[in-house]
Amino acid sequence: MWQRIQTLFLFIALVLNIAIFWLDLANVSLDGVLHSFNLYKLQVADTGEVLYSTIVLAILCSICLTLCGVTLVMFKRRQVQIKLAKLLLLVQVGFLVAIFFIVDGAVTGLTEVNAATVEYYIGSYLALIPLIFIFLAIKSIKKDEALVRAADRIR
Predict the structure, then answer these.
(1) Of 31, 22, 46, 51, the residue nearest 121 (C-alpha)
(2) Euclidean distance between the first and final Cα of the chain, in Å?
């Protein structure tokens, strides 16, 4: 299992998705007050007062984690692994898009009169990197499947 490069790619994607749970996605500066946005909420950084609560991002990240784990252990069934990896790629793209839309929606709902500045942090950009590793895993699984089919033709 670990000798295959696609397993390493999927494991790296899994670890990166786990890391997103503990990182801030964005910081919002509104009237000189700093607010932090993570997977669960937008809160005032100093007092911890929750201004906007969301569970959608945490659910999408959990789905990505689950699909990544299931895809990782399906190494004996390459066709199913390819289909799950493609689904994982689609869900990961949806998660990335949801991050930016939900942060923008929370900031828009928070600021009706004043303008706020949003700084996206490493957590939001970290969601891009698993896309690359999932894509590489799909290519490696397909290459592995082609090698197995070629060996079957020789027999």
Answers:
(1) 22
(2) 24
Model confidence pLDDT, tens digit, residues 68-111: 999 999 888 889 999 999 999 999 999 999 999 998 888 887 76
Full-prediction pTM beyond 0.90? no
DSSP 43-92: EETTT--EEEE--HHHHHHHHHHHHHHHHHH-TT-HHHHHHHHHHHHHHH
**Taking a C-beta distance cutoff of 8 angstroms, is the pair 138, 89 a contact?**
yes
CB-based contact 140:9 (threshold 8 Å)? yes
- Count of residues for the chain? 155
Task: Point out the residues of the chain with pLDDT beneath 70.
Answer: 1-3, 111-114, 152-153, 155
Q: Record the tokens describing residue 15, joined without a space.
A: 């670890």
User: Which residues lie closer than 8 Å to 127 by C-beta, 6 or more apart?
Assistant: 17, 20, 92, 95, 96, 99
Q: By the 8 A CB rule, do 54 and 40 touch?
A: yes
